[in-house]
Amino acid sequence: MNKEVLFAKTLEQVKKTAKEQGNCLSKEQVEEAFAPLGLGGEQMEMVYGYLHQHKIGIGEPVDPDAYLAEEEKDYLETYLDELRALPELSQGEREAVTLSAMAGDGDAQNRLAQAYLPEVVEIAKLYAGQGVYLEDLIGEGNVALTMGVTMLGALEHVSEAQGMLGRMIMDAMEEYIARNVEEEKKDKKIAGKVNQVADAARELAQELHRKVTVGEVMEESGLSRKVIEDAIRMSGGKIEDLEYGSTS
After folding, report:
1. CA dist 134 → 23, 38, 69, 92, 180 (Å)
2. Angle at 57 between CA 51 and CA 60, to 5 degrees
3. How do residues 175-233 score in pLDDT, each as one tens digit?
4. pLDDT at 245 exceeding the cut of 70
5. CA distances (Å), 237 to each of 197, 213, 232, in order?
6. Could you say which of 109, 140, 145, 226 would form a disulfide bridge with 176 (CB–CB 3.0 to 4.6 Å)?
7. Nearest to 170 by CA among 67, 18, 2, 9
């Protein structure tokens, strides 16, 4: 494995460990993880900077609320008020409910999911500030939680339940963020194609003092018919300087 691949894998593992520890790592953990790579002081400072950008505290956790927008804080306050109205489980009750949930009791599974809702919120706050709404993260986490409590029968011990549910919730949020990133890339790619065709049509239209046809844009710009027609479709037919009545 080359050094670049090992570095990327190590960074992802460190981030995962941090999430499991409430977005916090000790300096010793970071140094131990990257020791096989033999990084210099300046390179390690870049690693610490990267971790800080991802809200991972070194030695002490960062304040996740500091990364919330005002509307997210307002939403969170209302949502937490709703959760406070739900009955709480003592530690002993939670263990008993978990055992019943592991045995397949549907009522127990529902009660356990309800008890974990505040923890979904805390996990969601760790992923705030990454281009997605907190409300959507909580929604994804709640879906994963609802599924997770029905899968506890695969565990051997009650003590394993919290870790399993936590991992499922985090995985769901990370997958949602990754999907959002991909969608943004697609949107930018589409916007780029539309802008390219729109710019070519605008320049030609200004020169000819009229709207132009697809064929004219093809001839002048060198763009293929497919690229132009794809741009027309992607824009919903809103490239102003193109004459849609004629494609010649």
Report:
1. 16, 38, 9, 31, 13
2. 160
3. 999 898 888 777 788 788 888 889 998 999 898 899 988 888 888 888 888 888 888 88
4. no
5. 12, 13, 5
6. 140
7. 18
Rounded distance between C-alpha atoms, residue 112 and residue 99, angstroms: 10
Q: 172 near 140, Cβ under 8 Å? A: yes
What ranges in the chain are assigned the alpha helix state H? 3-20, 27-34, 41-53, 70-84, 91-102, 106-126, 134-148, 161-208, 214-221, 225-234
Element (H, E) at 57: strand 57-58
User: 231: which 2 tokens?
Assistant: 């741009």
Give dist(CA 172, CA 137) in Å, integer.
Answer: 8
Q: Tell me the C-alpha distance between 213 and 39, whole Å.
A: 58
Give the pair of three-digit tokens for residue 143. 């879906």
Residue of 229, 169, 235, 241 whose CA lies nearest to 203: 241
How far apart CA 49 and CA 33 sit, in angstroms, is 16
Which amino acid type is present at position 110?
Answer: N
